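#struct-help
A.M.: can someone run this one for me? Single chain, 303 residues.
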Amino acid sequence: MPASFVPPRQVMIGDAAAFAGCTPRAIRHYHEIGLLPEPERGGDGRRRYGYEDMIRLLWIRRMADAGIALEDIREAFAEDPADAHGGDGIEAVLERVEEALAAQEAELRRQRTAVQRMRIEGSRMGLLSDLVTERLKGLPEGSLRQADLDTLLVTERIFGPLGAAVQATRFVALAAHPALREESDRVDAAEEALDDSVAVDDPRVAQVAAERHAFESALHAVIEESGLDADEDALFDAWEAAHPETGDDEENGSGSSSGRAISVLEATGKMPYDFSPARLRCMELAVELSARDAPASETGPAS
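D.P.: on it. Structure tokens below:
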């Protein structure tokens, strides 16, 4: 190894690019944005890069490889050209880059955790929050439908993890009671049939509302008998203990999941699609039937 380095002669852009590990196009871009000064041109009109040009080009490449934006590199050189090679003039830039890399690292960890959960829980269920998947653990394989997961995904988006975990109680109960699941499918289909062609005062609207009310009453009874309602109370208590500072629902982005109940009409109003007037009226009637049959302790004093 020689005792001293002899600066090379001037080279053309292709050789400079090969030496720095970039492309001639990249070097031209550095010239355009003022990051690398234009070198002298030879008699043939072509650029010639000398020792200082190559050194600056190497520093540019090293800084870019470290994640520093070209604009920040240009500012660093402009701030203190004499000190730029040593790095002392880019302290603020490096601090910003380090913060950005830390954020990227955290995001990569989050993504890896999500992929691991998908492999363990299943590609769909693994995308739901821990609170929801924990609620669904123990269900027989195949008892949870794709439509159920779709519903939980929408609910979690609107009402947050707690709202979806509460709704998961329904699917836990339905998975254990095939007859109730069959009735759920029948009522759902009847509601979907109330499209825009059905008038609001059509007798089918009140009929389906009564069927929905009867089904929800039966489902609620099953949930109480199986003790799933007690699990819900524990779920709420644990959530409130972990989020004592939870304030306005709209501000914290959790929807109405911090409350003790999610009304059908409230959920409907937050859906990203419209229901027909007949179906909305059916929901209103079902809510009225539930309020009429609810104990006074649940409905509160009459207005």
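A.M.: thanks! The chain is about 65% helix and 0% strand.
D.P.: also worth noting: The radius of gyration is 33 Å.
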